[in-house]
Design brief:
alpha/beta; binds magnesium ion; 271 residues; 31% helix; globular; two-stranded antiparallel ribbon; binds adenosine-5'-diphosphate; Rossmann fold; single chain; 8 helices
Length: 271
């Protein structure tokens, strides 16, 4: 990534209504898949849309104050809620910090209360692995290969389920291991049954995210990191240390052909 590309990464705030109405090709955004999120403005000024179904499992990182929670709470969650009813979308939120996500605390979209501890996280992942297997059995019975075909066949008992873990490092380095095996199983095979994960952490080093776990995130999103070393840990390359404004990030995903693209935020709701 060159410096002129990074210069363009200044923050430009766009109202959320505007963000939902536009798509990269200028068509109305309403026609987009239920799992697609307009994540921000790419270096070319176009809205970048990332679809969980094409690019499952996002690893989000960045130093404290770089914009991770804002992105989760003000971009991902409201976008998906605006496109799906609570019968179509379920959220599971894990956040060991008790004060974030107040606006979602009583939401009907939440499958269970916001999870704060590694023990509760383990119970949830045990349940999720069982749920994933139950969903696969349903696909086999209906002779379809994924949740979208299952829905097209007229079934509505398989809501897309998004698992968001914020501040992963605060779950406790050693305790985290008690649910890591289940989390890896989910990461490896949950896409076809509509279960997706977003994990945010300040630094995805091996003590926080094991190599096997990290390898299963198809999408890397890196907000500002303090130096080139941390940028490499996050993205396998430098660049995230040069990001200027909170909310700007570098993304590598299927939609960018796994190349790094600098993205500026679309909205500033509740800042
Ligand atoms: N998209 C954005 N646009 C403008 N400012 C932002 C944006 N995202 C974050 N910020 C600013 O940065 C601060 C810290 O963001 P936050 O999401 O809490 O960071 P993190 O979760 O990485 O610690 C916010 O309170 C806000 O002032
Ligand atoms: Mg945060």
């Amino acid at each position: 990534m060159n410096d002129s590309e990074l210069d363009k990464s200044r923050t430009e705030l766009v109202a959320s209504g505007e963000m939902l109405d536009c798509a990269p090709n200028g068509t109305n955004y309403d026609g987009s898949p239920a799992t697609a999120v307009p994540v921000g403005l790419g270096s070319d000024g176009e809205v970048m849309v990332v679809d969980f179904f094409k690019s499952p499992h996002w690893l989000v990182s960045g130093m404290p104050g770089s914009g991770k929670t804002t992105f989760l709470a003000n971009t991902i969650i409201p976008t998906l809620i605006s496109k799906n009813t609570s019968d179509e979308l379920r959220l599971i939120i894990v956040d060991p910090q008790s004060d974030t996500y107040p606006e979602i605390r009583d939401s009907q979209y939440l499958l269970r209360p916001i999870i704060r501890s590694a023990e509760d996280c383990k119970d949830t992942f045990n349940w999720l692995v069982d749920e994933m297997e139950r969903r696969y059995e349903k696909l086999v019975q209906q002779r379809v290969i994924n949740v979208n075909q299952y829905k097209q066949a007229g079934h509505n008992d398989m809501p897309h389920t998004l698992v968001i873990i914020d501040n992963l490092e605060q779950l406790g380095m050693s305790k985290k291991k008690i649910f890591e095996d289940q989390a890896i199983r989910i990461l490896q095979k949950s896409k076809a049954v509509g279960i997706f994960m977003v994990v945010a952490t300040r630094r995805p080093s091996v003590d926080v995210v094991s190599g096997l776990m990290k390898a299963n995130f198809a999408t890397r999103i890196s907000f500002k990191h303090k130096d080139q070393i941390d940028s490499r840990v996050a993205l396998d390359q430098t660049g995230a240390e040069k990001l200027e404004k909170p909310g700007n990030f570098i993304i590598k995903c299927v939609e960018t052909d796994l190349k790094p693209v600098v993205v500026r935020p679309l909205s500033s709701i509740d800042l």
